[in-house]
Specification:
The complex is a heterodimer. Chain A is α/β, with parallel strands linked by helices. Helices cover 23% and strands 22% of the residues of chain A. Chain A starts with a strand and ends with a helix.
Chain lengths: 564, 184
């Protein structure tokens, strides 16, 4: 029987066997305070805030780790419980520097909130004044051990969410310290800057280097949107104050990554130093000069009407823009700039979550830890849980350290043998998949799911409207839909004198050779939809207004269609 | 019921707590009906009267030998001692110097300071020597009521004095514990 009956504060509660008292209480709507507990992490029972009394048990129990049992009587608010929590708070406050007056998270701090709740007007214990160095060696966030309460949420987030195991504890007792690797500065450590530790820290011990002084929670706006930095499409919580972008957080329990982000979504876009294009421009007497939209679109439309045209889209934009782009070039040729993963011709598609449930993961022709990092972290998580990782025809992969099998497609027998002993296999493959590997993987088709890693961000969105990978070719007019995609000048030598129209967010070598430049919004300003590598469509919601003279790509492309 | 007598003193402090006290604004007229203010940094009388007061209020931390003596004097002369503000209650921002050697702090502040030319550490018999550690009032003398906050809000101060005037022991909670005027 999996149901358990107990009472909490004399209220009858039904819970499932194996649940903790905390989970049972929360389901029943009974509040128990917590501090080291975090719903996205395993329970640790370190902070003693969730202390409860269980009749007949000696001492007080931590509700976040104590499992329910038939017939137990739990009390969450007795004098002994409150005294225990206050005592723990006094110890936490007296151990390090918890003076709120010079802490940037004062007002949004979980420790401070508990002190208010339990009326902690002073503490009785002397402070030790150990000098602890602040670690500001990481570009994106700062670790201040003086504010740390050693709840180990960050350690658990690093291990359980990012599967990176950078953070750990050193020393014992009051000398315990959170450390990176073997106690090296964070900036020199194996940290991958996924931001998970920063997001779970309950105090001011881990603070965002850019946005932490930007305002208190009550001043901030949270906008839920979708990351478009790669094809995974993680859910983002974009934190703004007025028109200022402060930080980006993951969204717990969201599709597809459950709250995990990577440096490409969490930090890099906030530090992009490329110069923004904020007004349409046209080439006059050999020089690019600002123009108004009517003028720029007029020239673009005339050229598109009268010459052979080729449209090339970097899939760094919305489904709406890609579909309008495909319509604009319905009578001409258009395609996407990024290569696609080859068609296998067999196999069922995997979802990202399938990786976590797999016993065997095969990676071929892809480097997820560099390009779709969250997929890489998911693979590492599965390996942590005991899954086997096989790399097929992959050399120099940053996943090598976690693999149990490295095979070439000629020796694929080894892989087939391994697969024979597992129930669920997931094959993760990318653009570099070799024909030999395609053949070698075929015997796995029955017990495996297949996940193609698209090199383009919104590759699925492009695929849906028939934009296939296409190379630059001779045309009288070349139209590049770049969005915020980085352009390193590879196209410059291949324009062959074509009249060049570029719709982009930032200046790049290609802009210098364009004849018409049309500005686009950037990720945080976009509205519309995005299709991720699993084929799931999610919405983009603007967290910031576009600069005055910038327009949505789809709107601009629609106008051009109407003008033709 | 007669008026209660109150004395206040600031120790190692920025004066912000006394400013916050003045922020009770026109309520001070109401307060003065119930309270007789004897000595304070705002009055001519600086030391609490020898015959004692009902309530002594200390703001600021204890960081030099004079402040130590003032804290003891207030304790001896007040039936009821209130530690007001984060410095009096916890040591507060003044305790930042506890992380360093006392002489290093003085040299850094008076000689090596970027905006100082030809500086020297002040040294005179009128200047009280710094103690090794800055302490909270509670670490030096027994305290009866703690009112944290940097500074405590005028409402919190009004509440504490009102309760004391009415002969009750105040116990500030929730909003009244929050430091700063915006409740942050």
């Amino acid at each position: 029987m999996s149901e358990v009956h107990l009472t909490i504060n004399s209220q009858s509660v039904t819970a499932s066997r194996g649940q903790t008292i905390l989970a049972a209480a929360r389901t029943a709507g009974i509040d128990i305070p917590t501090l080291c507990y975090h719903p996205a992490l395993s329970s640790h029972g370190a902070c003693r805030m969730c202390l409860v009394e269980v009749k007949g048990m000696r001492g007080l129990q931590t509700a976040c780790t104590c499992p329910v049992a038939e017939g137990i009587q739990v009390e969450t608010n007795t004098e002994a419980v409150i005294e225990g929590r206050r005592f723990a708070l006094e110890l936490l406050f007296s151990e390090r520097n918890h003076y709120c007056m010079y802490c940037p998270v004062s007002g949004d701090c979980e420790l401070q909130e508990l002190a208010y709740r339990y009326g902690l007007d002073h503490w009785r214990y002397p402070r030790t004044y150990h000098k602890m160095a602040v670690d500001a060696s990481n570009h994106h966030f700062v670790m201040d051990p003086n504010r740390c309460i050693l709840c180990t949420r960050c350690v658990r987030a690093c291990a359980e969410i990012a599967a990176n195991h950078t953070l750990g504890l050193r020393e014992r007792g009051s000398r315990s310290m959170i450390m990176a690797d073997v106690s090296v500065p964070l900036g020199e450590s194996s940290c991958v800057n996924c931001g998970a530790c920063l997001q779970v820290c309950p105090t001011g011990a881990l603070i965002d280097a850019r946005g932490v002084y930007g305002g208190h929670e009550e001043d901030l706006t949270h906008t839920l949107t979708t990351c478009i930095q790669c094809s995974v499409g993680c859910a983002l919580d974009v934190v703004t104050r007025g028109n200022r972008l402060l930080r980006v957080e993951g969204v717990w329990d969201s599709d597809p990554s459950g709250g995990l982000l990577c440096v490409d979504g969490c930090f890099k876009p906030l530090y992009d130093e490329r110069q923004r294009i904020t007004t349409p421009q046209i080439r006059r007497n050999g020089r690019l000069t600002p123009a108004d939209w009517d003028e720029a679109l007029d020239i673009a439309a005339k050229k598109l009407k009268n010459g052979s045209a080729l449209g090339l889209a970097a899939c760094a934009t919305t489904n709406e823009a890609l579909s309008t782009f495909a319509r604009l070039f319905a009578r001409n040729k258009a395609g996407r700039m990024e290569p696609a993963a080859p068609q296998l011709g067999y196999g069922r598609s995997a979802q990202l979550q399938d990786i976590l449930a797999a016993d065997l993961i095969v990676v071929a022709g892809a480097h997820p830890l560099s390009h779709q990092r969250v997929v890489g972290y998911f693979i590492k998580r599965a390996v942590d849980q005991g899954a086997h990782l096989a790399l097929l025809d992959l050399t120099g992969s940053d996943l090598e350290d976690y693999a149990t099998l490295l095979v070439n497609s000629e020796d694929a027998g080894l892989l087939i043998e391994k697969a024979a002993h597992v129930e669920r296999a997931v094959v993760v493959y990318g653009v570099d998949l070799t024909p030999g590997a395609i053949k070698a993987l075929k015997p796995l088709v029955d017990q495996s799911l297949f996940l193609a890693l698209d090199a383009a961000r919104n590759g699925k969105g492009a695929e849906a409207v028939g934009l296939e990978p296409l190379d630059v070719e001779e045309a009288e007019v070349l139209y590049f839909l770049l969005g915020e995609q980085r352009e390193n000048g590879a196209m410059v030598g291949r324009l062959n004198g074509a009249f060049t129209i570029v719709q982009a967010c930032y200046y790049s070598p290609l802009i210098e050779h364009a004849d018409v430049v049309l500005p686009t919004p950037l990720w945080a300003e976009r509205s519309g939809h995005f299709t991720n590598l699993e084929g799931k469509v999610s919405s983009l919601n603007a967290a910031l207004p576009m600069p005055e003279n910038v327009r949505e790509e789809a709107e601009v492309l629609d106008t051009l269609i109407a003008m033709l | 019921m007669g008026k209660i007598t109150v004395a206040t003193q600031w120790l190692e402090a920025c004066a912000g707590c006394h400013m916050s006290f003045l922020d009770i604004d026109e309520r001070i007229m109401e307060l003065l009906k119930q309270v007789e203010l004897t000595s304070s940094p705002l009055t001519d009388l600086k030391h609490p009267p020898q015959e004692g007061v009902d309530v002594g209020i200390l703001t600021g931390a204890v960081g030099n030998e004079d402040e130590w003596a003032e804290a003891r004097e207030m304790r001896e002369r007040a039936r009821f001692l209130v530690a007001m503000g984060d410095c009096a209650v916890f040591g507060g921002i003044c305790t930042m110097r506890n992380f360093f050697d006392r002489d290093d702090v003085l040299i850094r502040g008076y000689v090596e300071n970027e905006s100082t030319v030809d500086g020297q550490v002040p040294c005179h018999e009128d200047l009280a020597p710094l103690t090794r550690y800055v302490k909270s009032v509670g670490e030096v003398v027994p305290v009866d009521v703690y009112l944290p906050g940097c500074p405590p809000s005028a409402d919190a101060i009004w509440y504490v004095l009102g309760e004391l005037a009415a002969g009750r022991v105040p116990k500030p909670e929730r909003e009244l514990l929050k430091y700063g005027l915006d409740g942050a």
